[in-house]
């Protein structure tokens, strides 16, 4: 799709004049009418771009939080922006695995490169699942509590959930003799 932005309304207006009207007075009249339109379009696009969640800060971000029903509760603008975007996904979901996975990946913070957030139903029975994120640095206790509360608020009724945060060097069984080394994963919920 072509960019709808018109960078030269005055030039476009003069270009639309029929040849018999291409006289300095007529061109000046068209430029006089179209010049303010350019300023209006530029201002409108700037305002629109500044109101996007990605560009919002401070009070504008607080306004977005009120719209989607997400409290700031002391979060920085960057963290709050992640929670607002996650809340918009959650508000539109019906508890589908893809939505739960996207929300958890957003609010739990950056995963270790090459390690996607995993959704697992194996061994949990018919109405339970786990979400696992591998992170380089563990979440703070405040962030972990917020993540758990958010995920509980969007979890389908009657469905069990386990939220797990692991480090890249987490303790695992390997295929060779012995055990791998590393720390244990953290069960958030």
- Helices and strands: which structural class? alpha+beta
Q: Which outline best applies?
A: elongated
Helix content: 40-55%
Q: What oligomeric state do the depicted chains represent?
A: single chain
Task: Supply the number of helical segments.
Answer: 6
Task: Report the count of strand segments.
Answer: 4
**Whole-number mean pLDDT:** 79
Total domain count: 3
Main sheet summary: 4 strands, mixed
Strand content: 5-15%
Q: Terminal Cα separation, in Å?
A: 45 Å
Poorly predicted residue ranges: none
Cα gyration radius (Å): 26 Å
In spatial order, strands of the major sheet run: 1-2-3-4
Q: How do the SSEs run, as a string of H and E?
A: HHHHHEEHEE
Q: How would you characterize this protein structure?
A:
It is a single chain. With 189 residues, the chain is of the alpha+beta class. It folds into 3 domains: 9-50; 53-92, no CATH class; 106-187, no CATH class. Helix content is 46%, strand content 10%. The protein has a 4-stranded mixed sheet with strand order 1-2-3-4, covered by helices on one side. Strand 2 (128-134), helix 6 and strand 3 (160-166) form a beta-alpha-beta unit. The two termini are 45 Å apart.
Main attributes of the structure:
189 residues; alpha+beta; 3 domains; four-stranded mixed β-sheet; 4 strands
List the helices and strands and how they pair.
Layout: H1 9-15, H2 24-50, H3 58-68, H4 77-92, H5 97-107, E1 118-120, E2 128-134, H6 141-154, E3 160-166, E4 186-187
Parallel strand pairs: 2-3
Antiparallel strand pairs: 1-2, 3-4
Helix pairs in contact: 1-2, 3-4, 4-5, 5-6
């Amino acid at each position: 799709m072509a960019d709808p932005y018109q960078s030269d309304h005055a030039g476009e207006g003069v270009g639309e004049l029929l040849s018999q009207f291409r006289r300095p007075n007529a061109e000046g009249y068209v430029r006089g009418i179209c010049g303010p339109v350019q300023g209006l379009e530029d201002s409108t696009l700037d305002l629109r771009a500044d109101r996007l969640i990605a560009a919002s800060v401070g009070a504008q971000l607080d306004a977005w939080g009120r719209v989607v029903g997400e409290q700031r509760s002391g979060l920085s603008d960057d963290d709050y922006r992640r929670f607002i975007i996650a809340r918009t996904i959650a508000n539109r979901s019906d508890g589908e695995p893809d939505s739960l996975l996207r929300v958890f990946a957003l609010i739990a913070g950056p995963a270790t490169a090459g390690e996607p957030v995993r959704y697992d139903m194996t061994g949990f029975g018919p109405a339970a699942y786990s979400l696992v994120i591998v992170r380089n640095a563990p979440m703070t206790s405040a962030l972990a509590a917020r993540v758990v509360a958010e995920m509980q608020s969007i979890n389908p009724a009657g469905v069990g959930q386990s939220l797990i945060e692991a480090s890249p060097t987490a303790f695992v069984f390997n295929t060779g003799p012995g055990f791998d080394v590393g720390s244990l994963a953290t069960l958030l919920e």
